[in-house]
């Protein structure tokens, strides 16, 4: 692998060199679980009816150059972000106002809030809450001054099903294994860091009063293609001593395989499908599903979420923490103070602290689309064929593929009832510096300009009642890359690919 200081990067490879590298990447990826289940466009379902096939995850052949100071900036602010979002999730009044502002155009958010209200009415029995968070950034190149500066600017903050921690760890190992020069490749221990967060919640849950063995449940989607990313985390937890039982449970089977104990605490009991006589008490529910409306096709799915939320298991996340991760919350937190009102951020992090200054440095410009003065001004920008070219329109959704970009914004907004516009936010596009790389996707190469997005993980365990933070750690990183002509960047959604950093 060529050095960044020795000429072209990535290097110009001869045909035989390229083929040898591709073979190495393909074999290493499958051999080490840097893999996904294939999409039907690659292997048709009828050709793989038992879903036994796996292919290497889309990945860059080389680590992408990433500014060292930006990498350090993103990692250093993560614990502050953990603290911020733990505080937001505890402020029910604040979240109630957020829900009120978006529920008119968003049934999903309204339904989540209704489940919370229903559980609140009878009383939550578990005060502890676990967050496995990921804050996503892009490098912004400010060209407005004579000396262009680089800073990371936050794209979004994920509070539920923050994926790719397992695959990120192995992508860094892949690039380390094929690096021939002394590139500065930071160590990636994300799988270990996230597992440690789940383990901390498991140990915080007391010994079962009912005499059952404790367990961790991964709540997953049926037919999950990104299964190996989840498995790496599961296998990392399984290395614990003493052993921690970990089980995967499809969301659709929650009511089939779990019950609530008839006690004041409502302990969540899980019966092993292969041995129903064996009962575990669920200490931690780690949700890798439940973040999208498609996870709730009918009332039974909502009944399942209510069933889990009212249980004594430690949730990762609770509904309140899931709602804290909405784009509307991000927009409100990033709105600066005015001469007549303090910033919303100051409600959670005092304005005159270095923590607040670090957060403000990472914020980009985000605007409401409601009927406030700022919202009406943002509507003008969104509807203007020229001004809209600098923005992305975002709904309150996770998972990739939901955003509307640039020139497509006016027509999209006009297709939505105006009464629902307030459930969207308008974000100024971040301008990254140009980077070149080669992507291997489904056996094909894509070479040219790319855009990189850095994710930094964090783990946080706190008491929802008292505010006591029992754990607050930065837990690793992820680099995802897409072609510079692509708008979306989700790997699982088919837009981006896995990557790692070489610091420059």
UniProtKB/TrEMBL annotation:
Q: Quote the subunit structure annotation.
A: Homodimer.
Keywords from UniProt, A to Z, are: ATP-binding, Glutathione biosynthesis, Ligase, Magnesium, Metal-binding, Nucleotide-binding
Q: What is its EC number?
A: 6.3.2.3
The UniProt entry's GO CC annotations, sorted and at most eight, read: cytosol
Residue ranges of every copy of the Glutathione synthase substrate-binding domain listed in the record: 215-324
Under which pathway is this protein filed? Answer: Sulfur metabolism; glutathione biosynthesis; glutathione from L-cysteine and L-glutamate: step 2/2
How the cofactor binds, per note?
Binds 1 Mg(2+) ion per subunit.
Q: One Pfam family for this entry, by name?
A: GSH_synthase
Q: Which InterPro entries match?
A: Glutathione_synthase, Glutathione_synthase_a-hlx, Glutathione_synthase_C_euk, Glutathione_synthase_N_euk, GSH-S_sub-bd_sf, GSH_synth_subst-bd, PreATP-grasp_dom_sf
Q: Write the protein's name.
A: Glutathione synthetase
Q: Which cofactor does it need?
A: Mg(2+)
Q: Where does substrate bind?
A: 134, 160-163, 224-226, 230, 288-291, 480, 491-492
Q: Which residues bind Mg(2+)?
A: 156, 158, 398
Q: Which reaction does it catalyse?
A: gamma-L-glutamyl-L-cysteine + glycine + ATP = glutathione + ADP + phosphate + H(+)
GO molecular function terms attached to this record: ATP binding; glutathione binding; glutathione synthase activity; magnesium ion binding
Positions annotated to bind ATP: 156, 327, 394-403, 405, 427-430, 453, 482, 488
EC class of the enzyme, as a word: ligase
**Record's Gene3D superfamilies?**
3.30.1490.50, 3.30.1490.80, ATP-grasp fold, B domain, Glutathione synthase, substrate-binding domain superfamily, eukaryotic, Glutathione Synthetase, Chain A, domain 3
Give the protein family: Belongs to the eukaryotic GSH synthase family.
Q: Which domain of life is it from?
A: Eukaryota
